[in-house]
Every structure is written in C-alpha cells, then in structure tokens.
Write a structure and sequence with these properties.
By secondary structure, the protein is mainly beta. It has two domains: 210 residues, Jelly Rolls (Sandwich); 78 residues, Sandwich (Jelly Rolls). It is 12% helix and 35% strand. It is built from six helices and 20 strands. The strands form five sheets. Strands 14, 15, 16, 17, 18, 19 and 20 form a seven-stranded antiparallel sheet that branches. Strands 1-2-5-12-7-10 form a six-stranded antiparallel sheet, with no helix packed on it. The radius of gyration is 20 Å and the shape is globular. The two termini are 26 Å apart.
C-alpha cells in the first residue's frame, strides 16, 4: 500500500504576519503571541527541512527521501541535488515589503538564487491589495526618484483579487502582498528576496529592515505594466500555472470521485483548498493540508466535495 506523505510545517515569524493559521485551520502554533507570517509546508533547504510525520518514512527528511528514494517516491528522470519546489502558506496581516526575486541570468552574479513563484488566494479581506508590476507610464527613472521621496506606492500597480484567484510571479516581477491575505505559494526552491521598499517601518527587532536597492534595480522588469490576475487555461480550464518549474491544476471534485497522479510514474503535490480527501488507510486530509502523492500510489477518494490544487514537475 503506497500512501500519501505528509510533513511537519515549519513556522516562520514575520513582522507582517499574524495568527490566521491558528484561527482558520486550528493549527497549534509554536507560541501564543508571535506573528507567524509563513508556514513552510514542503521544503528541502539546508537551513529548513520538512520532516515526515507518519507512515513508512516517518522522521525522514525530504532531502533524505529525495536523495535515497527518488525513483521509488518521486519518479524517473528527475535531476537536482535538492527537491526543486518549495510550498508555503503566507499569512499577511500587514503589507509585505515591495520586492523582487533575481532572474536566472543575474542570480549568480548577485550571490542569490532565481525564484519564480505563483500565488493562490485562499483568503482575503474586502478591498485588500496585491501590488504587482508597475503602473502605466512608470519608468526606471521615476521609480528611482520615488525611492528617494517615499512615493513608491504611486509607481506600483495594485490589484484587488477574490478568493480562488491566482497569479504568476516570474523572477524579475516587482511585487508585494498587501495586508489581509491568506495565500498558498508554490515556488522554485529558493529563499532569495531583494527588498526595494518596506513602507518605512521597523522589523521585529525595532530596527529598519535591510533593503537591497542596488540589487533590486538590476532585477526589476521595467516593462511589466499593470498585469491582471491569471485566467485558467488548458483542458477544462483547469490549468492555473504553467512554467518550466511547475505545472498546477485547480480541480473541483465531487464526493466519491477519485484523485490520482496525472502520470502514474510521477509524483504530485496535493493541496486541499476545501472539502476533504481520504487515503487507502482511512486518513482524512482537510482544508489547508499539503501532501506528496508518491508515484504509483492508489488514487485518493474525495470524502467531501473538494477544491484541490495539484502540482507536478513538467518533463
């Protein structure tokens, strides 16, 4: 019996974070007061390792699975020293910094890692803003001037999405998550972020957070004007993200339906947005839970009408 693999979340304090993971998903956070802005659900970083919580691989790290059981769990023809995807939940109770991630052709020269990601809006307050790309008419020169006089917000394009919307954030795209969002983030395995503006606030230590203006100005795509939230595409309009690093479908499944891997000889990452799934051992997975469905695993059963995000690594 090949069962899904689930990991212990790694919670990260952030000055802009909150307690929504506790409120919405009844999670036991590490303490009773700190603002937790990120939960790293699936990660293979030297400094942050997902650990399996149950089953045959209990207490193994994701890196150990990727290194020692790659074909058995994940499939054939998968390269790289580390699992290539990082999956997070973001709880933004305050605005995140306006930031950018380095494109591949610049990352090494800036001592960083390229980072392309996508956001799925799991929850948002009324009139909450995402900041993505530039307003029409903005230029590198006008943006640089806005950094000096504190008017960066006037240069950045704001979008007010709805729950269930998603957007692709390619490396080089200027962006910030505004206050009032719960977001599922799928990204390249990278932790390089260059902050270009942080709303003139202080960090958790009472000091202004470090900015990376020189690096940011090299990375920002100054031809990226007023993007919109993405439109689903592909067969049945299920595809909500398609790039060289990951392919994601949003599936609406009725009770009793089956959910298996799109390619039986390859794994997938399952995110339960709503409803529930049950595996062959009778374990139920509810909203806000993430798991790896190994290659050749038996399909899971939809035990309550569900919305599921399913992510695979493209060939």
């Amino acid at each position: 019996m090949i069962l899904p693999i689930q990991f212990k979340p790694l919670y990260q304090e952030r000055v802009w974070g909150g307690r929504e993971l506790e409120n919405v998903y009844s999670r036991a956070l590490p303490d009773k007061t700190s603002p937790f802005g990120e939960s790293w659900e699936i990660t293979d970083r030297e400094e942050a390792q997902s650990v399996v919580t149950s089953g045959n691989y209990q207490s193994s790290t994701l890196h150990e699975l990727w290194t020692n059981h790659r074909e058995e769990i994940f499939g054939d023809n998968l390269a790289g020293d580390r699992f290539p995807i990082l999956v997070k939940i973001l709880d933004a109770r305050d605005d995140l910094s306006i930031q950018v991630h380095p494109p591949t052709h610049l990352a090494e020269s800036l001592n960083g890692e390229p980072k392309t990601e996508m956001w799925y809006i799991a929850g948002c307050e009324k009139d909450a803003n995402l900041y993505v790309g530039l307003k029409n008419g903005a230029t590198k020169e006008s943006f640089e001037a806005s950094l000096q006089d504190g008017t960066v917000e006037q240069q950045v394009h704001a979008i007010q999405p709805e729950v269930g919307d998603s957007i692709f954030i390619a490396s080089g795209r200027l962006h910030a998550i505004g206050a009032g969002f719960l977001i599922y983030e799928i990204q390249q395995n990278s932790d390089t972020t260059y902050r270009v503006f942080d709303w003139n606030r202080q960090g958790l230590d009472g000091k202004p957070r470090q900015l990376h203006i020189e690096e940011s100005m090299q990375c920002i795509d100054f031809d990226d004007f007023e993007p919109t939230m993405d439109t689903p595409s592909g067969p049945n309009n299920n595809c909500i993200s398609d790039c060289e690093h990951f392919y994601m479908e949003k599936l609406s499944l009725t009770e009793g339906a089956s959910l298996g891997n799109p390619q039986p000889n390859r794994f997938s990452i399952i995110t339960v947005v709503s409803g529930s799934l049950t595996d062959d051992a009778g374990v139920v997975y509810n909203a806000g839970e993430f798991l790896i469905l190994p290659r050749n695993a038996n399909p899971m059963t939809v035990s309550e009408t569900a919305i599921i995000l399913q992510t695979v690594i493209p060939d």
